[in-house]
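Priority: medium. Attachment 1 of 2:
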């Protein structure tokens, strides 16, 4: 049983604003989450203690530790006074590669590459994505706005990121939240895998900037279109371009910008799209 709630009310003293003086504010909880495979620790993340089953499966898939959720024979969530352990037991034989690459990765909130031991670890080769999805730009803008309405924890705390999945014709079908944007994406990946949703059939939406780690995780999921409310980094653009992924940033109610492979974003209500 998980003992930490995703948020907690704390006392605060406000100056100005709509409610000056003493009061309380809801803030997101932040907990050390250890990913433990066959008894060995692989990673430690600071994360929001919610949707932890999704996080366990999504991290395992996005990091290439498993290829399908059935590779996990058992999952146990074990709270401790210092945090929470997600204990996974894998199909016999899968743990061998973990022993070979074992590292203990402990980093601050939202750090996607903390603790990697070489440049090759930080920039692994990415297989090209295979997705024929095409989405109207106006639908993508509306989806980002719709996702914001489903961010219940952020509405309460104004302090967490979200990752969502949009399916053409259905809208935003899943949203996951966390203090770390990478954790939110891992949680989304796990939820999608558990529900049998294929990332290639839609678009992954983020409320953060687009860093290279998010591109790497989205590529591992298999999506052809990654969109966010903020801009991408230059390395994220180069990585998405090489992977054949469409990268859309600055996705707001009044427009968006497409940085790579624009053929998946249809501009039929404005300028025509340009294929690469």
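Attachment 2 of 2:
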């Amino acid at each position: 049983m998980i003992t930490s709630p995703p948020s907690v009310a704390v006392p605060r003293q406000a100056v100005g604003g709509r409610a000056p003086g003493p009061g309380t504010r809801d803030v997101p909880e932040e907990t050390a989450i250890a990913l433990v495979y066959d008894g060995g620790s692989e990673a430690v993340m600071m994360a929001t203690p919610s949707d932890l089953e999704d996080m366990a499966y999504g991290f395992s898939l996005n990091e290439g530790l498993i290829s399908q959720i059935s590779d996990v024979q058992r999952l146990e969530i074990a709270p401790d006074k210092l945090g929470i352990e997600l204990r996974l037991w894998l199909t016999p034989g899968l743990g061998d590669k973990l022993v070979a690459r074992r590292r203990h990765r402990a980093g601050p909130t939202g750090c996607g590459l903390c603790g990697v031991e070489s440049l090759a670890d930080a920039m692994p080769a990415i297989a090209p994505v295979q997705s024929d999805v095409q989405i109207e730009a106006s639908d993508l803008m509306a989806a980002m706005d719709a996702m914001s309405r489903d961010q219940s924890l952020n509405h309460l705390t104004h302090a967490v990121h979200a990752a969502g999945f949009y399916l053409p014709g259905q809208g935003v079908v899943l949203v996951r939240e966390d203090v770390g944007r990478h954790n939110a994406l891992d949680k989304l990946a796990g939820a999608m895998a558990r529900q049998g949703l294929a990332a290639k059939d839609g678009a992954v939406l983020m409320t953060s900037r687009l860093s290279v780690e998010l591109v790497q995780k989205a590529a591992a999921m298999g999506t052809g279109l990654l969109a966010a409310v903020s801009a991408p980094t230059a390395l994220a653009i180069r990585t998405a371009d090489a992977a054949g992924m469409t990268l859309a940033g600055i996705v707001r109610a009044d427009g968006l910008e497409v940085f790579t492979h624009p053929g998946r974003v249809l501009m039929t209500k404005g300028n025509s799209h340009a294929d690469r």
